[in-house]
Amino acid sequence: MKKRMSLSIVLVLALLLAACGGKEETGGEASGSAQAGGGEKQITIGVSILNLANEFTATLAKGIEEKGKELGVKIIVNDGQKDPNKQIQQVETFIAQKVDAIIFNPIEAEASSPAVDKAKEAGIPVINVNSVTKSEPDAFVGSRDQESAQLAIDYLAERLGSKGNLVMMHGHLGQSAEIDRTEGAIEALKAYPDMKLIAEQTAEWNRDKALTLMQNWLQAHDGQIQGVFAQNDEMGMGALKALEDAGVKQDIVLVSVDAIADALQAVKDGRLDATVFQNAAAQGGGAVETALKIIRNEPYEKEVFVPFELVTQDNVDQYLK
Q: Which domain of life is it from (predicted)?
């Protein structure tokens, strides 16, 4: 009888210990996953970025990740590497992973559109950030790229007395920022009939390609160029090196877009005449906030625009970190 009672006590204690162990495991698992909004299941957002090798889009991704961390959301960032097909594959993977939303920084307006279509067919909300697609997402967070071109052309006109010959470096052809900045520049130039666009070509957002392109233009249009509009700072910095190497920077006004770190420093040093600030952190953070509103069925803005700002040597200190 005593033996039986002893065995019963041992069994009860074993069961109690096992139950406690199970509770500890479950509790540990819950605390290990970020809980957004206090009590709701963990929210996961997939992100496909145009190209993480580019400083601006890398800053955009960082803004998304930091806002996700702040709000307790799991963020999965993929690098599209300037390949629309790769982006489509990344979105297909996000669909298979059953993410709650996708933040999409498209490479091309048309070629990247199937990714948006696939996500929406799967019932996953899509927020385009910084650039647009032909296919309509659930929301867009970014800036009006025509505005950046307007600021750049107006600045060139001010510096050149509204007359002179310009060249324009395009970004990746077919990408919405390239399309809109081109349209914005052409429209802005209508106000300055004595400013002529004598050459325009893509350097694909790339610093080295912009260096080569600027060198070619200096040879083909020797002494004829008074201003340069580069559609982003990577190209602007490449053009700047070509102008400095040729010893002609003092004769040519150069403005670009994005306000990346070394462009801001070049403005501070008086080497680059101006850049146009595009707030990557605000765009990235805004995309996460919009995604959460959609996921939670809360009211949200279908379009959120962050203004551009002209940066010159007079105000550059407020942008330098």
A: Bacteria
Taking the C-alpha atoms of residue 240 and residue 255, their distance in angstroms, rounded to an integer, is 10
* CA-wise closest residue to 105 among 280, 244, 227, 237: 280
Residue found by looking up tokens 């309509």 in the block = 136
pLDDT in tens, 211-222: 999 999 999 999
- Residue 128's DSSP bridge partners are 104, 140
Whether the per-residue pLDDT at 257 is higher than 90: the answer is yes
**Ramachandran quadrant class, 141 (left: phi over 0; alpha: psi -120 to 50; beta: rest):** beta
Give residue 132's pLDDT: 93
Provide the pLDDT for residue 6: 42
188-216 pLDDT, tens per residue? 999 999 999 999 999 999 999 999 999 99
Q: What is the C-alpha separation between 61 and 99, in angstroms, rounded?
A: 17
Question: Measuring CA to CA, how many Å separate 287 from each of 47, 140, 156, 293?
Answer: 10, 8, 32, 10
How far lies 204's CA from each of 119, 172, 209, in Å?
A: 28, 4, 7
Please tell me the predicted confidence (pLDDT) of residue 321: 75
How many residues are present in the chain? 321
Strands (DSSP E) along 143-184, which ranges? 164-170
Return d(Cα 135, Cα 121) in angstroms, integer: 12
Q: Alpha carbon of 40 to those of 31, 45, 314: distances in Å?
A: 13, 15, 48
Phi, psi for residue 260 in degrees, rounded to 5: -70, 170
Give the H/E segment covering residue 114: helix 113-121
> Which DSSP string do the residues of 234-266 spell out, in sequence order?
HHHHHHHHHHHHTT-GGG-EEEEEE--HHHHHH
pTM: 0.78
- Residue with the larger pLDDT of the pair 221 and 2: 221
